[in-house]
Amino acid sequence: MRAQSMLHRLSQDAAQVLGVMCVVAASAMAASDHAPRKPVPASQPAAKAPASKAADTQGPGAAEFAHWHRRYLEERGKAAKGEACIRSSTCVSDESDYLKHIEEAHKLRKAIEGWAQAGNHHAAYYAGLMAFDQAKSFDEEFRIYNSHKDERYLAASHRFLEFSDRELRRAREFLYPAARAHQPDSCMLMGEVIEYYRFDPKSSSALVFFYCAAREYYLAGNRELAMKAYSGMLRTGHPQDPMVVEMHARLLTKQPENPWRPIKPLSPVNTEK
């Protein structure tokens, strides 16, 4: 099917445009990263995450998941270009320019989510990151559609809110086991997800996860990331909260140098007669 004829049919009814956008958004939401050297079979059951650090040793490491996540982003970018070409009246294209890339991104994401469900904490971070990014993308679509006065556009905007809420819940489900195991990146992202979540305006529970990230980064010697997590603590917690006070003391409080002569301890007094 040629792109121009497709655009002509879509422009006939604004409601059809909204429906197509929701379907496209839903398929993009499901897009995932997959391990080409060791993919997760579709029939593999979702295993409960093993306790603590034992889960880190299962499957690929952080570098491999980072590579697959980059591939996922590349495929999503190519799919976006293909979609833009289909919607353009001056670009000759067909659906394959979009579908083949979004399908590959879908496979990649599902494989990473499979590793996350099997208990790999590195995969859990990237699965949560993809879900969080998708939720923010849906919120952006909501703002676009909600700015129109047409009732059909307004009705469609609420569907994007539902999609965003679902992705935020999925992000928290993926991140929680890794954050509970004190993985600093997952703790940091978990705090950001909770802070972002519209139904938790106070975001008080985000403080615990920002504290987890700040403490673990500090213990690992990464002061820059620890300060970033500490900033999240200040946004979501009371300045006098014990966790905030502790990290302030660790990161910012420094004992002044003594300009005077060091005081030597007195020699013990001989009490023998």
Quick summary:
The protein has helices at 3-12, 14-29, 62-87, 96-117, 121-146, 151-180, 184-196, 206-219, 223-236, 242-251. It is mostly helical and 273 residues long.
DSSP strand tally: 0
Based on Cα principal axes, name the global outline: elongated
Order of helices and strands: HHHHHHHHHH
**Termini separation:** 110 Å
- On the 0 to 100 scale, the average pLDDT is 77
Give the secondary structure arrangement, pairings included:
Elements: H1 3-12, H2 14-29, H3 62-87, H4 96-117, H5 121-146, H6 151-180, H7 184-196, H8 206-219, H9 223-236, H10 242-251
Helix pairs in contact: 2-6, 3-4, 4-5, 5-6, 5-7, 6-7, 7-8, 8-9, 8-10, 9-10
Describe this structure in words.
With 273 residues, the chain is an all-alpha fold. The protein has helices at 3-12, 14-29, 62-87, 96-117, 121-146, 151-180, 184-196, 206-219, 223-236, 242-251. The radius of gyration is 25 Å and the shape is elongated.
Defining traits:
single chain; 273 residues; mainly alpha; 10 helices; elongated; disordered N terminus
